[in-house]
Design goal:
The protein is of the alpha+beta class and about 230 residues long. Helices cover about 40% and strands about 20% of the residues. The protein contains 10 helices and 9 strands. Strands 4-5-3-6-2-1-9 form a 7-stranded mixed sheet. It has a two-stranded antiparallel sheet with strand order 7-8. The protein is globular, with a radius of gyration of 17 Å.
Length: about 230
């Protein structure tokens, strides 16, 4: 495995990092990059080399200011309109977590929203908003974005790794350590041979071939903070 310091350098240079959560959890490798550096070629690389769902993970304090909520909470609140929503929202994942999904968005300057150019635009504009979150109004968010869209937003738990050990929290914590805007693009790495998630061994081969750092969750959790 790579060192956390190598991953921090990679993220600060606008490059990818690979993160494995844990064998007892999803047991998946995510391809991760700082949202503020995302360009269309990064979206294309995630599509081709990873193949999972391309999402935008955002720190809880930022999504709170944007007044975003978890999708399972939104569905619970709609239970008096349709009880099916409440029943669906009560279902937990096999590994025990409530999902970190919120709404999906497109920037208003996109066309269909799904192209590499469109998704990169939505993500980079969201990153700009997150970076200046203390100086913007909620109107700027609602004026420039629409939902549903093609970029799923993930909300990191309030206590980060104290509350949840998902990729959403791991990459948000890594952004904190790196001193970057706490908005991260993540995408699960799939295996087109086994039709399952990419194994750690295959991810290690990919890491060696591409030079992209590969981290275990335990390395991030135990990394000594110096601030």
């Amino acid at each position: 495995m790579s060192k956390v310091e190598e991953a921090i350098v990679s993220l600060k240079e606008g490059k990818f990092v690979l993160i494995h959560d844990d064998k007892g959890r999803e047991n998946e490798i995510d391809m991760v990059i700082a949202a503020e550096y995302v360009r269309p070629q990064h979206i294309a690389m995630m599509r081709n080399d990873a193949g999972g769902l391309i999402c935008l993970a955002i720190a809880n304090e930022i999504t709170t200011k944007l007044r975003l909520e978890y999708m399972h909470e939104i569905m619970q609140s709609l239970s008096n309109i349709n009880p099916v929503f409440s029943k669906l929202a009560n279902n937990k994942s096999p590994y025990g977590d409530k999902p970190s999904f919120s709404i999906t968005v497109n920037h208003r300057d996109t066309y269909t929203g799904i192209t590499d150019i469109d998704r990169a635009l939505t993500i980079s504009k969201m990153a700009e908003l997150c970076k200046k979150i203390n100086f913007v109004s909620i109107d700027e968010f609602t004026r420039n974005f629409r939902t549903p869209g093609h970029v799923p937003i993930l909300i990191a738990s309030k206590g980060l790794l104290r509350d949840r050990m998902g990729h959403t929290e791991l990459c948000t914590y890594l952004m904190q350590i790196a001193g970057l805007t706490q908005a991260t693009v993540i995408c699960e790495m799939m295996d087109s041979t086994t039709f399952k998630a990419m194994s750690v061994d295959r991810a290690r081969e990919y890491s060696n071939k591409t030079g992209i750092p590969l981290l275990e969750a335990s390395q991030i959790v135990t990394y000594p903070r110096r601030d």
